[in-house]
Design brief:
67 residues; little secondary structure; three-stranded antiparallel sheet; 1 helix
């Protein structure tokens, strides 16, 4: 068993993948293509409620300024 620290992870949130929960190996992660996980599945990004790319698109379409 091994562990690692990622410089893009802050309090469980990935700053590299637009604020998604940190899931090592997810699409956009620094580990994609560099490591292989035992189950062979690349996890999809998961965002906290109100923080995902879908919410950003909805705000842009409504004329509401982004934070």
């Amino acid at each position: 068993m091994s562990s690692w620290n990622c410089r893009h992870e802050v309090n469980g949130i990935c700053m590299k993948v637009a604020g998604a929960y940190c899931r090592p190996g997810m699409k956009g992660c620094v580990l994609v293509g560099k490591v292989t996980f035992q189950d062979g599945v690349i996890p999809a990004p998961v965002w906290p409620p109100g923080a995902g790319p879908a919410e950003a698109r909805a705000k842009a379409g409504s004329g509401e300024p982004e934070r």
